[in-house]
Design a protein that fits this description.
five-stranded antiparallel sheet; binds 1-deoxynojirimycin; eight-stranded parallel sheet; 15% strand
Length: 549
């Protein structure tokens, strides 16, 4: 089915517009959101049933992690058929119904596209193996002879992000490249058939009506000519800090220029957001030049500690980096690959993979404050399912239930990602706390009964109601997400931030002690209960307050 649409009219003057510029986008991790058939695994019908919850929460769009046919070697980021739904998630008809219902509720739908690698069960790779060394299908991947006398050594020294060498040897002696698990062979984007296939896949989903794509490993598609060695033995530490021969190569941008043309052919402002881990926000900005993608995740912001000076610096750098390219900044605190921010902030400053529960109360207080700060910034914000419930990571999952492939590979980068993927609690009792009528693929802590949607709904002090209020206020004050700058207020004490947006002021205390400040206006929302007395108010420790001014 081919559809022909007139090119949308993009504004060329004045303030840029576009639904995505200030959208709040909610990430659904389909395995763990809602299970409609009681098999312990979330599915598309489960998502569809809960769309009204998302509409009422007040988000603008939903991004779903992969639900395509997959052997699930990496929770669906190993795709065996990009145009089919994995039976564990449902059918294409379910996807169609879910997209239609979302649209009827006023929600946009963004799906994941995984172009850096396929599954080893993808038809091309299976044939590349089955047809032997002469198979022309091998050119669509990175097959190479090994080094050493008998080719027994990998072709170069690259390491997999999940640990171990980035090469696996097949029975006939050739090696193939996989930056992630061996079940995720990297595609060769120099081959025209690869580019054609993905243009077709984009059109397939655009014709299904999706509003956009989240591009997995957007920075990885092009590898440096000749696949040069990196040298040194701590490659994982370089990731995100240095330009690597397999990441952030300039050639990727040509691909996104061709994708942008496709997106622009469709009506209704279809978008793409890059998952691009780059060394600097300036390099991230390359992905969102006017003829490339629309947004890129701001992982520099996600990695920032709960520290006023650091936060201000990354906010300023992010906004400044986006200005020359005219793209909105994006903000994100949690996703399915990192420790949830309620747990990160419960621990002393560290990376994005934290293995201890820390001080839960402190973590939640800071997480709530961090969320109000994020939702007051200009640009688009991403909310990961369950953060609206203040969920922590589950840091004590027994080894035998873990599924993250990097857990099973030595020295991997993200071996503890299961902790942020535990299914959501919807009700205070029942099997899997309303996730489904059966169990859940990862065990939920008993304490999650009290964190369920049911337990928090109507409780004005709950994190869920805080998110609902914040998102409602963000809609009432459209100036909040719009624009490209914040107006920092001078004279705030150390550890305190105050910035103005049109008709609005946000005050943030990242320190452990309350601060007294002059009342700037009418209090709209507080992440921690506060008192306003006469001309002064208390900005509690680790809190954010919103004001109408
Ligand atoms: C990034 C995804 O978010 C992550 O979950 C996945 O493991 C890798 N890309 C590989 O696809």
């Amino acid at each position: 089915m081919t559809q022909h649409f007139a090119a949308p009219t993009a504004p060329t003057t004045g303030t840029p517009t576009g639904w995505w510029r200030d959208a709040v986008i909610y990430q659904v991790y389909p395995r763990s959101f809602a299970d409609s058939n009681g098999d312990g695994m979330g599915d598309l019908e489960g998502v569809r049933d809960r769309l009204p919850y998302l509409r009422d929460l007040g988000v603008d769009a939903v991004w779903l992690s992969p639900f395509y046919a997959s052997p699930q070697a990496d929770a669906g980021y190993d795709v065996a058929d990009y145009r089919a739904i994995d039976p564990m998630f449902g059918t294409l008809l379910d996807a169609d119904a879910m997209i239609r219902d979302a649209h009827d509720l006023g929600l946009r739908v963004i799906v994941d596209v995984v172009p850096n690698h396929s599954s080893d069960q993808y038809a091309w790779f299976k044939r590349a193996i089955d047809d032997g060394p002469a198979s022309p299908l091998r050119d669509r991947y990175h097959f190479r002879p090994g080094k050493g006398e008998n080719g027994e050594l990998p072709p170069n020294d690259w390491e997999s992000i999940f640990g171990g060498p980035a090469w696996t040897r097949v029975a006939d002696g050739a090696w193939y490249l996989h930056l992630f698990a061996p079940e995720q062979p990297d595609l060769n984007w120099e081959h025209p058939a690869v580019a054609d296939e993905f243009r077709s896949i984009l059109r397939f989903w655009l014709d299904m009506g999706v509003d956009g794509f989240r591009v997995d490993v957007a920075h990885g598609l092009v590898k440096a000519e000749g696949l040069p060695d990196i040298g040194g033995n701590e490659q994982l530490k370089l990731l995100g800090n240095d330009v690597m021969p397999f990441f952030d190569q300039d050639g990727v941008h040509e691909i996104y220029r061709s994708w942008r043309k496709i997106l622009d052919e469709y009506p209704g402002e279809r978008i793409a957001v890059a998952e691009a881990w780059t060394p600097t926000v300036e390099r991230t900005a390359h992905y969102v030049r006017p003829d490339e993608l629309h947004q890129a995740f701001n992982f520099q912001y996600l990695g920032t500690h709960w520290d006023a000076a650091e936060l201000r610096a990354v906010i300023d750098a992010s906004l400044a980096a986006m200005l020359p390219v005219g793209a909105p900044a994006t903000w994100v605190l949690s996703n399915h690959d990192v420790t949830r921010h309620a747990t990160r902030f419960a621990n002393p400053p560290g990376g994005t993979q934290i293995r201890t529960a820390g001080d839960r109360e402190l973590g939640l207080r800071r997480a709530r404050a961090a969320t109000l700060l994020m939702l007051a910034l200009p640009g688009s914000a991403y909310v990961y399912q369950g953060e609206e419930l203040g969920l922590p990571d589950v840091t004590d999952l027994p080894d035998e239930v873990r599924q993250d492939p990097s857990f099973f590979r030595a020295a991997g980068q993200d071996g503890f990602r299961d902790g942020c993927r535990v299914p959501l609690p919807w009700t205070t009792d029942g099997p899997s706390y309303g996730f489904g009528s059966g169990g859940s693929w990862l065990p939920q802590p008993q304490s999650w009964a009290g964190l369920s949607v049911e337990a928090q709904t109507g409780d004005p002090g709950s994190t869920l109601e805080l998110y609902r209020s914040a998102l409602a206020l963000r809609r009432e004050h459209p100036g909040l997400g719009a624009g490209d700058s914040v107006d920092w207020q001078p004279g705030t004490p150390e550890g305190v931030l105050a910035f103005a947006r049109p008709g609005f002021l946000c005050t943030v205390n990242t320190t452990a002690a309350p601060v007294r400040l002059p009342v700037p206006g009418r209090l709209l929302l507080a992440s921690t209960a506060t008192t306003v007395e006469g001309d002064e108010f208390e900005l509690p420790a680790d809190s954010t307050l919103w004001w109408a001014v």
